[in-house]
Amino acid sequence: MRRVTPDTIAVVDLAVCDRCGLCLPLCPPEAIHLELNVLTVDDAACTGCEKCVAPCPVGALAMVAYA
Amino acid sequence: MPDVDVLVVGAGPAGAVAAWHAKMAAPELDVVLLERDRAVGAPVRCAEGVGDAGLREFANPDGADWVSRRITDVIFEAPDDTQVVLADCGLGWILERTRFDAHLAAEAAAAGAEVLVAAEATGMSRNGDERWHVRVKERGREDIYRARVVIGADGVETMVGRWAGLDTRVPARDMESCAQYVLQGIDCNPDAIYLQFSNAIAPGGYAWIFPKAIGVANVGLGLVALKTDGRNARQYLDAWVARRFPAAARTGYTVGGVIVHTTIKKTYADGVIVAGDAAHMINPLSGGGITNAMKAGRLAGRTAAAAICAGDTSERRLSAYHHTWMELLGEDHLKYYRIKQALESVDDTFFNKLARTVNNIPPGKRTIGRVFTHALIRHPLLIPVAARFFV
Known about the structure:
The structure holds 2 protein chains of 2 kinds. Chain A is mainly beta. Helix content of chain A is 0%, strand content 27%. In chain A, strands 1-4 form a two-stranded antiparallel sheet. In chain A, a hairpin with a 2-residue loop joins strand 2 and strand 3. The radius of gyration of chain A is 11 Å and the shape is globular. Chain B has a domain at 3-46 and 97-169 and 261-341: FAD/NAD(P)-binding domain (3-Layer(bba) Sandwich), CATH 3.50.50. Chain B is elongated, with a radius of gyration of 21 Å. Chain B starts with a strand and ends with a helix. The model of chain B has no long low-confidence stretch (mean pLDDT 93). The chains are: A mainly beta, B alpha/beta. At the A-B interface, loops of A face strand 12, helix 5 and strand 16 of B.
């Protein structure tokens, strides 16, 4: 599948993240993973849609410039 | 490489009941129940309220150590704090989920299922031998479990469904972001749950007080992020608690997501069944999921056991689970979802007015029937909101 490189992608602050898993089903490309109590965003899969950011109950997700 | 008949991923109410009923239906089968966390039932991500009738299908709450509080009253609160008290309007319970989930897992174990804690499924694949090969990490080592049927009861994350190729994604408008404190030293009726509806307090959802003991309660809220002013759920909760209970001690804190959608289009695949929150089997009006999860788990366990005994774990055979669930509760959730959508246009002014006119009914005559009749005249869409709260 062709993917346009986004300007920004989601990153998680693990010091704030509560590992509740709410963001996983919100991610259209299923780029967020929770394994062995660590949440990760696959930056190669993230499309920068921001759908995960506002719903996080503790504000652990933010958009950053894609380097 | 352990060979099992049924591998259940997730030991919440859906998974524990699934393992329990699979084993009850066919005691000769090998059933394993996996829990990722180090203790079944922890961390609690739940307001812990459940209706009496649904609960009793699975466990007897009378005198049980997994009950915190018996509830008889519901107090609705309008945005301007006007209260509508519905006394003796039905029976419910506030659970102690750490003990309740452990109780259900113990029922599964007593029926002969093997329960493993701190055991996390990290992926699975189909290898042409009519079995799922599930990678399980436990105590630093990885095992491959070969299972005839995998029951995905892994909650909001629903990885089993994803691995099986099912679409378990949720639109942002149907995700409630929730935050909750356990508060100590608060003044509230310990026999009542409180539900406050307000776009300023919990846009798209509601705030709740669920008592766990005298002076102790789960105090939380759920909101839809698309409707907020930019603050997150915890910030909304902090504002509400600061206003309502400024002196309370916060002795617990949790966050989580509640999917207020409808059952996923397909809850099954070859050798896979998905149940509970993982399949979005939640009442979209109340956000209640415990009874739904247990009923789905029972159905999943029985369906899996019967399929294995018949030597047919194909998608075609397991589709019976989906159809039975839709008849049992899934179709109702579709109706509640439509009501939820209609209620999204109701504003705070309407709720304030409704609360005041309902209070013109004398408290002694304020039965649920009369309040609903009143609401029916004022706004037909409101009726099922409270009626179905405990379902």
